[in-house]
Write a structure and sequence with these properties.
13% strand; five-stranded mixed sheet; 44% helix; alpha/beta; 17 helices
Length: 453
Amino acid sequence: MMSIQFFILLFIVLTYRLDAKNFHPGLYKADKHHITILNDDNYRKILFEEAGKSMYFVEFYAHWCGTCKRYAPIWIKLADEAKSWKNVVKFAAMNCGDSLNSPACTDLEIHMYPTIRLFPVRPQFNPPLHGATDFDTEKKSIFLSQILDEVEKSNKTFWPNLKPFKSQNLNDIFPIGKRQKYAFLIIENDALIAKKTIMDFSDFLDTFIIRRTNWNENADLLKNLKIDNSSLPGLVVIENINDRIFYRLYNKNLFNKDSREELSALIKEYIQTAPYINHQLLTTTKTPETITAQKSEQIDKIVSKVSMQDLETGLHLMLRNEIPQSGTIKEEEFYALRRWIRTLAMYFPGRKEVRNYLANLDRKLSSIKSSHITGDEWIQMTKQDQNSESYLPESTEWVHCKGSTPNYRGYPCSLWTLFHTLTVHQYKLRTDMSKSGNFNLNFSKLNKNLRNF
């Protein structure tokens, strides 16, 4: 005989299922398409109540609408192109063809499908448009350009500055009161590409600055930098070291048609090797040129030729046994250590957990403001904050590097294997960039770090 407790539990479950709303799946998947799914339960919180800093670009559609079905691939493509702009604008969609969403679509006065609407940051709930702007669905090819125009007109300090840089003094690119040490000035021949590139790095406003300019806006500066129209687009890298400005110029015969990717690749490469900066880009951003299926396949091919067990064991012995033998690592040795960990974080082609561990170790080491670290502090740094997503096993087992007796091969073998693997991996990752013949492919930075270490 079933107990009274069973019937009470069954009643609670059935009541919950009757109260829960089973929304239609619609045309989009949030995790797959970089699109926030709005419904009658969440739209007020997301659009009007959350204390965010992003606009929402929303498509209101009906899943049964033929025009909407044809429009869906376009919305997905736009959201994918702007996926790294999420700190400024997020793509969203609401299925008004689902009767459960009818109250929301009525409140928002949606009368046709699809309707495209841009909601500002934290709008007031004030019908009919609530401060939002309707977009012409037929002008989809300029949607991103229109959003960039909105950002450029804004004076919000938590958004990228898309206005042209007009000062003749490179010092002025660094905002007063900010601590950024690096800036990039895009010398544009296509303002849209320059703006998109700046937006691609909108997650890193506190890390470095990207601005744009051109001959019409700042001819005197470009003359001083000896830039002419034949070498556009260009990129000026600016460093602010102890209030002294240094700059270098990448401009001549450098870019092909995909200059957005080229610009992003150069900016990322420079930041990855720059001292005095937390190395966040390794684990947190995916700009248009970064980890693709093709590059992941290249990594797999490299790893298949060596034993990952040997590489990880060598790393463990190096980081936790060899390096901390120095009582204090200071000055040139400390600088060499920082560059070596940066190199490992950039080019070690192992599994994700170990790459995350190296990136976190690089970030912690880069955050040290002094020019030294003790062996005990180093040991603690290598062992702390490990978890299932970021760790280096404490293994002392060898596979291909195992000698006939414990006296042979082992650690020296793993070091040579590691050095070779890093060099090959760097070459593989840069092959695509060198295909045009315009990229100066060399290993000077990697080789210098290997020699110093």
